[in-house]
Specification:
There is one protein chain. By secondary structure, the chain is an alpha/beta fold. It is built from 18 helices and 16 strands. The protein has a seven-stranded mixed sheet with strand order 1-3-2-4-5-6-14. Strands 9-8-7-10-11-12-13 form a seven-stranded parallel sheet, sandwiched between helices. Strands 15-16 form a two-stranded antiparallel sheet.
């Protein structure tokens, strides 16, 4: 008899299903528990989609994952997926991270090129976090938590609201307009008509259409009475927010930190609060669990929490519901619509930021002397149906002297792009902007324009990689292979961001 999922603890068991011939649904949800994220109706829906291999209570062993991968149509969990494992999973249709983030243990570029969406259940936490940060802002503005503590020890300050203020009518700012930022916006609208948003990944026109004010990071702190820091950490923005931002705020301004502690200079945040210039609401910390000697435990003018803004029991079953909703859609030939999808333009930077300092995958002593040649070969040999070509080939190559022929050098070229200016250019040609003395162009006529990859976007831009093509990419045996090229470019993107962010 199969073991019920509710009784599993570090065990695996197939569950009865009416769809055994449709493939395996492989679960490795640790640190999540199956009974918390899958209620009984959702389990039954999942079992109708395939033969479910339940595993609970501990991370699944590599042997367990490898045994079931050849028949797996979906992986629900945080198991590592490099290219070798993907090669052993020809039927895989989707990967779901139920820890609700994107870890650096997956070859995202390879998944992208194979049409395998990597999905996160992060949207379930947006509403509880949004409500919590609003509550923290209100408490800091009116010092409710301090008044409560004072009253309990007989030191109440009756009627003393000299430094309290209303949120109503004040400029408010959101830094990072992802899931939480979008959930917070409707909660803030009753308080203010001046809501500033800073998010470099979102076009200002999109923000204006949402009736918010696009703003620079500096403007958010200089103008807003309350700033909500909700942005994901990337290799570029680590510790970017610091003393000068806090000093630019009006005295008594409120800063709420609820995404990741690494986005701010944490000692400078505590110093600004300790000085009395700002009030800080903190839900995330540089080290978690929070050490007993953490200075933030005793810093004045703070409202502190132990990373609990999203931990509301009633939302846990929504994780399983989102997974099953999207898996049903994917197996029906539709795109996922409920979970958050990993986008290669951002996920390499976010995943790279989670690697510990000093653990860059770039091999020590890597020789980059021939990297530009490899960059050109990778670019030239991309298959014409590859997902990377869904919006045309990468926009620009690193323009280095040497590879161009003498004739092209005389014309002002230092690269091997397409026709120079002077040829008949119709609407099917686009200028490259590669920095040559003459305009280079590229053709947009290729099969990927027919919509072979309607859900994808160009995942990698070679001009962002600069001169850093690692040894890992040069070692690939077949540069003409669609998957090899995409894997190389994904490695390059993550490693380039690690270097520039170091």
């Amino acid at each position: 008899m199969p073991v019920p999922a509710s009784s599993l603890s570090g065990q695996t068991s197939p569950m009865p299903s009416n769809s055994h011939d449709e493939g395996v649904i492989l679960l490795d949800p640790f640190p999540r528990r199956i009974d918390r994220i899958f209620d009984e109706p959702t389990k039954r829906r999942l079992e109708r989609l395939g033969r479910v291999i339940w595993h609970d209570g501990s991370p699944a062993t590599p042997e367990h994952i490898d045994r079931h991968l050849p028949d797996a149509i979906a992986l629900i969990g945080q198991s590592p997926l490099d290219r070798a494992r993907l090669d052993r999973a020809p039927r895989l249709r989707a990967v779901f991270n139920v820890e609700s983030n994107f870890l650096p243990n997956i070859d995202y570029a390879e998944c992208h090129c194979r049409g395998i969406p990597v999905l996160s259940t992060a949207p379930v936490y947006a509403q509880p976090v949004a409500e919590m940060v609003l509550g923290m802002a209100l408490s800091l503005a009116r010092r409710m938590h301090e008044a409560d503590a004072a009253l309990r020890v007989g030191k109440e300050f009756k009627g003393d609201n000299h430094d309290s203020f209303l949120l109503h009518g004040k400029p408010l700012a959101i830094v990072g307009f992802g899931n939480v930022g979008r959930a917070l916006l409707p909660l803030l609208r009753p308080f203010s008509r001046e809501i500033l948003v800073h998010d470099p990944w979102i076009h200002p026109a999109v923000l204006r259409n949402l009736d918010v004010l696009p703003a620079s990071l500096d403007d958010c702190f200089a103008r807003a009475r309350v700033v909500f820091i909700l942005a994901a950490v990337t290799a570029e923005n680590t510790a970017r927010i610091g003393r000068r931002h806090f000093d630019s705020m009006q005295k008594g301004g409120v800063v709420i930190l609820a995404s990741r502690a690494e986005i701010v200079n944490f000692p400078e945040l505590l110093a600004a609060a300790s000085s009395g210039h700002i009030r800080a609401g903190i839900d995330v910390w540089p080290e978690e669990p929070v050490p007993s000697g953490e200075p933030g435990r005793n810093t004045a003018n703070t409202l502190i929490q132990a990373h609990r803004a999203g931990s509301v029991p009633e939302i846990q079953p929504l994780i399983g519901q989102l997974v099953v909703d999207d898996l049903e859609a994917i197996l029906s030939g539709l795109p996922p619509q409920r979970c958050q999808r990993a986008m290669l333009e951002t996920v390499a930077s976010c995943a790279a930021s989670r690697l510990a300092p000093g653990r860059s995958p770039i091999p020590a002593g890597t020789d980059f002397s021939h990297e530009n040649s490899l960059c050109r070969r990778l670019w030239r040999h991309q298959p014409r149906g590859c997902a990377a070509n869904a919006r045309g080939r990468p926009r620009a190559m690193a323009a280095e002297p040497g590879p161009a022929s003498p004739r092209r050098q005389r014309e002002g070229h230092s690269c091997r792009h397409s026709r120079p200016r002077g040829h008949a250019l119709g609407p099917a040609w686009t200028r490259m902007g590669c920095g040559c003395a003459v305009d280079c162009v590229r053709s947009r006529r290729h099969p990927a324009r027919s919509g072979a990859f309607p859900e994808d976007r160009a995942p990698v831009r070679l001009h962002q990689l600069g001169q850093r093509i690692p040894e890992a990419a040069r070692a690939l045996p077949d540069h003409r292979s669609n998957s090899a090229i995409q894997s190389a470019l994904g490695i390059c993107a993550a490693q380039d961001r690690l270097r520039t962010g170091a």
